[in-house]
């Protein structure tokens, strides 16, 4: 649709408020939408207001004016007349200055209409600086011609002596309407910004500075033409600028508003990577490979960084410059790798990794997250295989807060054997080579005890337990203080001479071991068979005998194997034996590479009916382990 194209034959002019009003009326009369219009119509109308301001970026007021025209009943006031956009600004000037300003404005209008035959007359009107005069926006006629892409006018202005490397001033004293995003812009900058390849070619042929306003050795506070072309993904312009010697390693020290990138040293590699322009990024790399000559490879640079004493890399007379260049390229690629991963352009991230640039934990995690969301299984497998390349020094809080939830989510949803095996290797690596923290005995003295001679002795007993139909004789004085469970069993019984209590869910031999523990005052005299441990653990848990329960848990932890660990975990989980459960979870993580091949362990992981939330429990256990080894104030202490 061309319903909102600007009026033919004219461009919005500063001070042309009447023209602007007629243009807006033209837009209003042809508005066909009764509901929200398409995005392209928003853009078209907003750009019309932007062009009226002779600006190169749409601001919020442009959008409000577009809403006023496109949406019925929207409460947006019309744009106010600004002093720099009309002739009222001249009321503070004397007659001579006002006349000069009128003449200069007329000269700029004559040049901006694109008539090359008016160049000589227009130059005479511009003032003492002639062809290099600057408007209130700090722009020269050559800059405006480059913005329009008017190749013939650019050539005419160059022939008339226009400064090909003029810059938009950074101060607003003489030029109050300078837009922040155009400061230090050159004609080449504006031609590249608007994608006018023939104009860029013409400027470069006339020896325009290929780096824009950047001077040799100076810090760069604005984007170079190559940075702008790389960010826009203009392959033709990038190729042209590289051929003319543009340096892709130059970065911007501080953002000035042309791009929305964050603060930081964003060079051409980073900009192409951040915007996902893979072909442009590869072009930048290929140009660097052509120009590097004797520059060290990335592998040599990395080796130099880790082994500073390597004789092979001893700096020589001409080696220091190449080493610096190589390190600068490595830093640039690392920065680009970060931005490509941060913006989800995983293909570029993988390309950079293939050059030998090492992973950081953050770039690896962001790449893995993108591949998981995009269901790119081959890339997920490649990334998981590469986890071993991440140094343990990289293990930060991000691994716990973002990495582990992501990897366990992949394990939970993928159910792919290769991915499960790779994740098992990662979990085992993160758990570390240290042994699983041991369970310790509970040193708890009983408040009362009897001679073992009275164990199951009817003599002087005042309570009888019926276990599997057999009587077991005991003494209240011992049991009443043994545990809260025994106290509750004895409290509500009639005060008879001998109380009889039936125990229905414990075997006789197990109950005998429990009583032996109580009468002997500890676990030293117990001889527990492997077949009795789990039942004794259940009985100790039921009778609330913590020291006996812990003793059984320690026996289980010493006898655990890959064949018994799953059943043991289910039993411990059922009983609520948290210490034993945590130990077995550590055993799972430490031996997960072997366990992931077993059907019983797979069923435990993936069947919610077997044991709920086991993956969440494993994640918490691994997080605690990583924090204690790598992140705590006393690193290396094992929890």
Describe this structure in words.
By secondary structure, this protein is an all-alpha fold. Among the domains are: 69 residues, no CATH class; 132 residues, no CATH class; 75 residues, Potassium Channel Kv1.1, Chain A (2-Layer Sandwich), CATH 3.30.710. Helix content is 52%, strand content 3%. It is built from 30 helices and five strands. The protein has a three-stranded mixed β-sheet with strand order 4-3-5. A two-stranded antiparallel ribbon has the order 1-2. A hairpin with a 2-residue loop joins strand 3 and strand 4. Helix 4 packs antiparallel against helix 5 and helix 27 crosses helix 30. The longest helix is centred in the middle third of the chain and has 24 residues. The radius of gyration is 40 Å and the shape is elongated. The N terminus is likely disordered.
Q: Provide a count of the helices.
A: 30
Strand line-up across the major sheet: 4-3-5
* Cα-atom radius of gyration: 40 Å
**Main sheet, how many strands, which sense, barrel?**
3 strands, mixed
Strand content: under 5%
Low-confidence stretches: 1-33, 81-91, 255-263, 304-324
Beginning-to-end CA distance, first to last residue = 67 Å
The share of residues in helices is: 40-55%
- Main structural class: mainly alpha
Structural shape: elongated
Which properties best describe this structure?
3-stranded mixed sheet, ANK repeat, 639 residues, two-stranded antiparallel ribbon, 30 helices, single chain, 5 strands, Ankyrin-BTB/POZ_domain, repeat, Potassium Channel Kv1.1, Chain A, mainly alpha
């Amino acid at each position: 649709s061309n319903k909102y194209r600007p009026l033919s034959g004219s461009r919005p002019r500063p001070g042309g408020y009447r023209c602007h009003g007629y243009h807006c009326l033209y837009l209003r009369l042809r508005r066909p939408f009764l509901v929200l219009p398409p995005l392209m119509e928003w853009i078209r109308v907003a750009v019309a207001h932007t062009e009226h301001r002779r600006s190169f970026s749409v601001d919020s007021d442009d959008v409000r004016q577009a809403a006023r025209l496109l949406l019925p009943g929207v409460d947006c006031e019309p744009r106010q007349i600004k002093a720099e956009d009309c002739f009222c600004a001249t009321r503070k000037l004397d007659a001579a200055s006002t006349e000069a300003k009128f003449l200069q404005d007329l000269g700029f209008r004559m040049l901006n209409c694109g008539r090359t035959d008016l160049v000589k007359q227009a130059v005479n009107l511009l003032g003492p600086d002639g062809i290099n005069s600057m408007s209130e926006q700090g722009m020269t006629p050559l800059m405006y011609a480059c913005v329009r892409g008017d190749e013939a006018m650019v050539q005419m202005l160059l022939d008339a002596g226009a400064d090909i490397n003029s810059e938009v001033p950074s101060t607003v004293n003489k030029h109050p309407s300078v837009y922040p995003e155009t400061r230090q812009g050159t004609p080449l900058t504006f031609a590249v910004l608007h994608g006018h390849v023939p104009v860029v070619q013409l400027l470069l042929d006339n020896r325009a500075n290929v780096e824009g306003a950047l001077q040799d050795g100076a810090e760069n506070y604005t984007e170079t033409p190559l940075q702008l072309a790389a960010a826009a993904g203009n392959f033709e312009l990038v190729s042209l600028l590289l051929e003319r010697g543009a340096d892709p390693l130059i970065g911007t020290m501080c953002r000035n508003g042309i791009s929305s990138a964050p603060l930081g040293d964003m060079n051409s590699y980073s900009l192409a990577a951040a915007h996902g322009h893979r072909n442009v990024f590869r072009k930048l790399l290929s140009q660097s490979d052509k120009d590097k000559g004797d520059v060290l490879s990335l592998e040599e640079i990395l080796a130099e960084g880790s082994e500073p004493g390597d004789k092979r890399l001893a700096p020589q007379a001409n080696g220091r410059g190449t080493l610096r260049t190589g390190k600068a390229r490595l830093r640039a690629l690392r920065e680009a790798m970060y931005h490509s991963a941060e913006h989800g352009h995983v293909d570029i991230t993988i390309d950079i990794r293939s050059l030998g640039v090492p992973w950081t934990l953050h770039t690896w995690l962001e790449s893995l997250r993108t591949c998981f969301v995009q269901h790119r299984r081959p890339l997920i497998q490649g990334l998981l295989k590469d986890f071993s390349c991440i140094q343990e020094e990289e293990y930060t809080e991000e691994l716990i807060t973002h990495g582990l939830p992501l990897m366990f989510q992949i394990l939970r949803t993928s159910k792919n054997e290769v991915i499960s095996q790779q994740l098992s290797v990662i979990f085992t690596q993160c758990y570390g080579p240290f042994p699983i923290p041991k369970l310790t005995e509970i040193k708890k003295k009983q408040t009362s005890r009897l001679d073992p001679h009275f164990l199951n002795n009817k003599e002087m007993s005042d309570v009888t337990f019926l276990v599997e139909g057999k009587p077991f004789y005991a003494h209240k004085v011992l049991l009443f203080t043994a545990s809260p469970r025994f106290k509750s069993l004895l409290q509500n019984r009639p005060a008879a001479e001998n109380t009889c209590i039936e125990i229905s869910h414990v075997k006789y031999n197990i109950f005998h071991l429990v009583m032996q523990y109580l009468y002997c005052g500890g676990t030293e005299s117990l001889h527990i068979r492997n077949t009795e441990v789990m039942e004794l653990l259940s009985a100790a848990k039921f009778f609330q005998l913590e020291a006996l329960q812990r003793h059984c848990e320690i026996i289980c932890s010493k006898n655990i194997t890959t064949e018994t660990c799953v059943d043991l975990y289910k039993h411990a989980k059922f009983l609520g034996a948290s210490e034993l459960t945590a130990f077995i979870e550590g055993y799972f993580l430490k031996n997960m590479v072997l366990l992931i091949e077993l059907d019983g362990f797979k069923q435990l992981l993936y069947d919610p009916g077997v044991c709920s939330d086991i993956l969440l429990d494993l994640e918490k256990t691994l997080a605690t382990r990583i924090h204690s080894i790598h992140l705590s104030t006393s690193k290396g202490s094992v929890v």
